[in-house]
Amino acid sequence: MPVFVKKVLLWGGVAFLFYFMAFRPDGAAQMFKAIGAGLMAMFQGLGDFMTSLMT
C-alpha cells in the first residue's frame, strides 16, 4: 500500500475517533470499555495458558 494511502487512512481514523468522542461520548466510552474488556480477557487467557504450561 502506498505511503500516502496509509497516511490518509491513519488521519481519517484519528479524525473519526475525535468526532466520535466529541459528538457521541457515551458510545465512545462504551466502545473503549468493550475494547479494554476484550484485551483483558485475551491477556488473562494468555496468562492462564502460560501458568498451565509451568505446572
The radius of gyration over CA amounts to 17 Å
| Mean of pLDDT | 93
- What ranges have pLDDT less than 50 throughout 5 or more consecutive residues? none
Helix content: over 70%
- Element-level helix/strand string: HH
Which band does the percent of strand residues land in? under 5%
Number of strands: 0
Number of helices: 2
Q: How can the largest sheet be summarized?
A: none
Q: What is the structural class?
A: mainly alpha
What overall form do the CA principal axes indicate? flat
Cα end-to-end separation: 45 Å
List its salient traits.
55 residues, mainly alpha, 2 helices
Task: Note down, in words, how this protein is organized.
93% of the residues lie in helices and 0% in strands. It is flat, with a radius of gyration of 17 Å. α1 crosses α2. The chain has a domain of 32 residues. The longest helix has 30 residues. With 55 residues, the protein is mainly alpha-helical.
Walk me through the topology.
Layout: H1 3-23, H2 25-54
Helix pairs in contact: 1-2
Q: How would you summarize this macromolecular structure in one to three sentences?
A:
With 55 residues, the chain is mainly alpha-helical.
